[in-house]
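User: Hi! I'm working on a homework problem where we have to compare a predicted structure to a textbook description. Could you give me the structure for the chain below?
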Amino acid sequence: MSKVYFASARVKKWKYADSMPGKLERMLKEINLSAHFAKDEWIAVKTHFGSEGAHRVVRPVFLRKVVDALKAIDAKPFVTDTVRIKGLDYLEVANQNGINSLSVGAPVVLGDGLYGNDNIMVKAGEILGEIAVASLIYDVPAMIVCSHVKGHIQAGYAGAIKNVAMGGISSSHRHGGWKCGRGAMHTIGEGRLIWDEEKCVLCLQCEEICPLEVIEFENEMFGYSEDDCFRCGRCTRVCPEGALTQPEDDERFMKSLSEAAKAVLSTFKPNKVLYINFLTEIQPECDCMPAADVPVIQDQGILISDDIVAVEQATIDILLRAKPLPQSAADETERQTDILFDLTKKPYLIQIEEAGRLGLGSRDYKLIEI
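Assistant: Happy to help. Predicted structure tokens:
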């Protein structure tokens, strides 16, 4: 049975030790980082930089606590994410969201290069075959995965598995294109966008949100570059009339997330990856979107484990006990029993079940409260 450490977001004493940064410090001492990482070892602190307009990421103060704890054992940490928009623009987004070398106390670098195609093909499983793992993550000997827990329009739930699977994989491969990257998870078959002219109201939101600027309307007709598109699906998500779609399969997508996570983690030796789930500012959508809605669930706290499946199961169990926040998207749903499922209707538990089946960890855990 895996151990999962938990610190509640509630603060009942007005002292630093009971603050969330203070509790995180204590958790990092309790888990004994020296048992996982060595002196002078390079360690990736993997997080999500967010987007311009999406500010509810793991806050820099928490990343700094992780970095400082690693420095205290004489390790050499750096903070990283993989490219989602143009590399230099993404570093500027990170800076706007407060993530830079001064705030986190360590270098902030891109895991797959400025162009997002610095990666190495790794065997991934029955669905994906092979997948392009970011070269920096492939090469680094150790990692701490800092995940902002939230909803997700396609995954339903986004935590450590999604962070490792999509965050450790490039958008595309230098030669294989999107079929070797995240796009292989996002869609099925050729993944071509389907435009319904009769439904389209020419609001142009799809064109505006495209991170690669490959969509254009000429003479009020939809068009895009199939070769350059990496199938992120943002355009289909923002279409208010459902005029733009791409082929999807929920079960396949959830299982492919677990396959990709296993591919990324296969590049590390045992006991070299830790997972920290931040159950804070739990919004209904991914941090890659150009806006952040109000949280749908009150802040719950922080979870740490060396078992990705256990930390995800513990997270879900906590979220299932939570109540929807008033004046949020969750407050507008009918059932309000499984908040993230009610918001998206996505069977998100499949990704955790599949990760367990693939041997990434155990859904049985012991919760240790700090």
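For your comparison, note the following. Residues 152 and 286 are 5 Å apart (CA to CA). The chain has 13 helices and 16 strands. Good luck with the assignment!
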